[in-house]
User: Fold these one by one.
Assistant:
Number 1:
Amino acid sequence: MTLAQLKLVVHHVLRFNRGMLDFSVLNSSFANPTWISVVYAFLLSFILGVVLALLYVKTFKGLSYSLNFLHCLVILPIVIAIAMQSIGDNVARGIGMIGALSLLRFRTNVKDPRDMFFIFAALTIGLASGVHAYGIAILGTVCFVIALLVLHKSPFVAGPQFDGLVRFNLPRSPEEQRAVEDILQSQCRHFALATIRELAQGERLDYSYQIRLKSSATSADLIGELGQVSALRGLNFMNQESVIEV
């Protein structure tokens, strides 16, 4: 082998090694991360957090959603990734982080279990990105998105939902109740008596019905029909989705 050929081989080996070093940036160890791997972790946390926020908006069924909660879904993975990068493999840092977090008191109640799952998803994305498990973070987010979209589009998971709650009071008379139920039968796909209680020392009864309107009927039609019953008082219709806090 001539000197020129040897130089050419060395050149190709060094070029290959530089390429391997560039590729290994993403596979740097958790204990000794490089600056570029840290940037990748934060950038991936941000992108996947935005995906979670968009998915939350896409599958939300209430009247309105909280912008602060959306910001939490985007920022929380970045914060967790920062914490994991700071702790690394150091046990003392982990204990110190737990002690610092124990000083905080989170008093915000999560009333919807669905919101809790989104919070846990944001936490796990931040954890996976912080320990440089980029493939797990991406694949886990894709699986979460697909599962939630399937549940959102599948009709069987919704169950027997009701459109709203109708409340009124009538004299204590089976005929009056039967007349009202005939109207509900004509306007509703199905209905169920939710509560009943006495009013005016037992002379009148207060009824609450959960209803599911027919596709051809509207809430205004139902209110108009019930309003024609002369003995009916205190008519009130509450949309089922209005109970969601805005």
Note: The chain is about 55% helix and 15% strand.
Number 2:
Amino acid sequence: MTEIKHILETEGGLSQVSVERAISEIRAGRPVALKSGRSHVLVIGVEALDSRLAAVLAPLAKRSAKLVLPAPRLRRLGLDRSKPGAIALPHLDLGRIATLSLEVGARIDAPVAALGKLDVAALELARVALVLPAIVVIPVSANSIEGQGLLRVEAKFIEAYRAVGLRDLNIVGRAPVPLEGAPDTEFVIFRGGEGLRDQVAVIVGKPDFAEPVTVRLHSACLTGDLFGSLKCDCGDQLRHTARHMAETGGGVLLYLDQEGRGNGLSNKMRAYRLQAQGFDTYDADEVLGFDHDQRGFDFAALMLKQLGISRVQVMTNNPLKIAALEAAGLEVVSDKRIMGRQTDQNIRYLASKRDRAGHFIEMDDGHALAGVKD
């Protein structure tokens, strides 16, 4: 057993395991203890905080709890801020916490303090756990939580979690998977790089990796890719890409588990509800506390490198993806547009991406199917 422990410690495994357990605890609605030096805090996601749990935590809080919120949510509360902050919670008032965290028309009701190291780690834990980025943080002593069965995690492990995961990105399986319109296709499965999720490289045809390879980075969209939602153009883009690659010498489509621009499926549905109330896609995310795009594409670039690809022709409308591949050391020799249907239901969404995020999208009053464009 000593040898196993040594392997884990030398490869960063124990730190990753502790964070992965913390992700599971937070997603399950259980508090986690974070520590840095002699400082300890209990953290719990706001969406999991109910009256029973609040009653259990209240004796530990002792009027010292705080609500940690990201900058976008604080801006929605009426502050001009570019950094996250903390609001004092003299009592674990569930109504007040819910109002400050989620209510559309809420306004700040107390001073906002800068975050400490443990507060920052708590917010990052929420991000990688794909829960609402609103966290109750309770400073505690080590003795007060002894014997409570709480998971304890070093803040520095959470800070390093993504970087260590990138280092451990590996191919864990591959197999031919014929697709409609692209029958000569292989799926290559990667593990690591982005939390506990697997990522897929779909190799269409027989591209020559010694030459510039046609590539698309496609973030998973359950509603569009699988169910054909009319609210977005994702499913069309996915299928157009595979067909285009099959018809033009092949390519690699990276199918990335980054639902809802990296916010997760539950938060995507919260954003959809806000969109139904009149918010555009970016304002809806900001109400929930998210920036315009939470995704990272560094692990996508590493997937391409592991496949032996160094030069790419990118199929995208998103300038951030082009910049991310170039920043990761890949040579982007060209880029092409990939268009989907424009419908009554997605026209505002597409216009918002064009006008607010700089996507290369041509609007068509006829709502035509555009396909691939140079």
Note: The chain has two domains: 2-160, 169-258+295-373.
Number 3:
Amino acid sequence: MDSSSLSIGQVAKGAGVGVETVRFYEREGLVPAPKRRPSGYRQYPADTVRRIHFVQAAKELGFTLREIRELLSLRVTAGKKCADVRKLAHEKLAEVDAKLTELQRMRAALAQLAASCTGKGPTSECPLLDALDAQGDAHVHR
């Protein structure tokens, strides 16, 4: 094995992920399929660790595996511009904003329900549980 190729264990250790994660990323097309030694062992190029770090960083920003594949392809596709990447980033930002709005709505509703409960009495008389029951009934009758 030449000095610029890594075993799957070396890639996993260098990237701070498990061996199964490396295999998963390979199956998902996020890491190119490596060459194999005559023994069948995978030989990954040294830049595989950097690529996995890229995938992890993109995941932390909320990009899906499909979106990460698209980001990776933008880097190597002729004729693509930074504006193409910017467009994807703005689309993800709009998704995050929508999720934040929904989380704020959920928080406000939960805070209101929690405030309605004094914490006293039996659960059969709990206003929070009653409110959830009423909302559940409303969903059933839609």
Note: Strands lie at 5-6, 35-36, 42-45.
Number 4:
Amino acid sequence: MEIRAYFKYEKDRMNQNLSSETTTRVFLDRLKTELLSDLPGVDAHLLLAPEIRIQDLKTGQTPAHAIESAVLIVLYPFGGRLYTAVILRNEYDGAHSGQISLPGGKKEESDINFEHTALREAQEEIGIIPDDVEIIGQLSRFYVRPSNFIVYPFIAYLPYKPVFQPDAIEVQRVIEIDIFDAIRRDSIVHKILTFKNNIQVNAPGFLVGGEFMWGATAMIFSELMHVLERTTNSIEKTGLANQQF
């Protein structure tokens, strides 16, 4: 079977069908390689940055008192496609109340490292089983000013569609995303958001599950989008799309 039969490069070569385990393995291994090379970082974040964050991102300053945390982008196959999951947070007295977020949170003293933080939080918030997960790599460290968090985003692979168990206190609902359908350059939309004191912000983002995903989460996904583009370009360029398995 040819990989070409599964990697159906449409106009932007981002509409893959990942129904074959072999094809998926090729893709994940190449993704691992791309995550170990120079990451787009700020350049990717700026594409999805609200106007009020652009100058902060360009300066790259992170305060010494920032809180360290980690989040998890867990990829999994479903219906011959590659999905991930985000959460709609419950309303609470905090910077990200009612927003779309990745499962994750603050690093605890008991956490061995940031990878452990991301896996622990994903288990607590949506029921991901850490022992079933393969860590693929890590995106750029990212500072979130509204919550004063330094975020370490990890990408993982789960070989099956998880049975989500959302934490009732923190999670309003889990939203599943086809990453090659929802996370695309031509899927970026802009909204004018109104905050306290009628402050309005022009924010780019993605529409997922009927919700507007913007801010730090959208900026993290922007970097993932760039890395996915590099991955698919690399697979096509090296001729793996024609290789027989």
Note: The chain is about 30% helix and 30% strand.
